[in-house]
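Render this sequence as a predicted structure.
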Amino acid sequence: MNAIAFLVSTFFDLYIMVVLLRLWLQWARADFYNPFSQFVVKATQPIVGPLRRIIPSLGSLDLATLLFAYVLTIAKYIVLQLVLTNGGVAFSPDLFWLSGLSLLKAAGGLVFWVLLIRAIMSWVSQGQSPIEYVMHQLTEPMTAPIRRVIPAIGGLDLSVLVLFIGLHFANILMGDIIGPVWFKL
């Protein structure tokens, strides 16, 4: 059953990241005509589109997309419980706050992966890839302030490294504040 739980968890985690990526693309006002952005929109539009008609946005925050990501996180834990207990589900109030924490951790993981992809693509594609352009649009609001404080050293941009260290620090800090459950999410 652990193999099936792994597949279920991975499927949910990847789709939750795509939904969070849509939220991030909207927040960063990235180019939605980019092929990568179009993939994200097409993968999430069947659910998010109708939800956006019902749930209004709060400023630049798309509440419908955020709610969809949260519901997906809850569904992930329910399905995992079904898989691991052979059909038995015990609802607990902890499910709702654990799902919120899991969504927060998924957002941090998404930032990590986008930064990593941007760093690798900057070595390989030299600005020619449409995916790199979107990754740049997503991460530039985070890297630009760091770059103003720590300039490039010999052409090497250290802002992504500083963000990696900051993300790792935040992950450890959340584990210290919340406890071992943070690392199990």
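Summary. The chain has one domain: 2-184. The longest helix spans residues 94-124.
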